[in-house]
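Lab notebook: predicted structure, single chain.

Context: the supervisor wants predicted structures on file for every construct in the current expression panel, including those that have not yet been purified. This is the next one on the list. No modifications to the sequence; it matches the entry in the shared construct table.
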Amino acid sequence: MHLSAIQWIVVAVVGTWAIAVTLVLLTLVRQVSLISVRLDLKMRLSDLSDVGVGPDLGMPVESQSAAMPVGEYVMVGLTGTCNSCVEFAKSLPAEGPPPGPPVVVLAAGSKASATRISRLLPEWVTVVTEPSATQIGRDLGLSRTTGALHVSNGVLLGRADVGSFEDLMALTNTDGSTHVHAPA
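Prediction complete. Output recorded below exactly as produced.
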């Protein structure tokens, strides 16, 4: 089968057009991916004071819920439907408890969600479920999953967005400093 000169030109134009569209689509996907990575990084490194991780450091925190812990503790908001929450729960060592204050997890959401996250947590973690979890989280201003508050005798000592056990340990450092920790 022989093609005429015009047919060859049409094939060349259509082929060039297909290659150009493919390159544009690949560039578009790359740009969207880069924007997503940059936004994720910016959220991780931003000041956590305006993203639902509790009141100002040194301020008193309280809740009317009977399930509210007393003394020194670290409170972490988790759900069973959040992938980063599941990864955080899996990062906690089974043996424990680690040095530092006790860890209290607010397992917000449905009973199935709370059960899912609770099963992943080691025995040394105290779990508070609904309706107390939402009430305490609301009272403390903890509206972000994997958000953590380090509280001692009703005063906020530190806050962080924890993604791993190491982030949790950094929040509860033993030098007694008051700080905001944002994981890298």
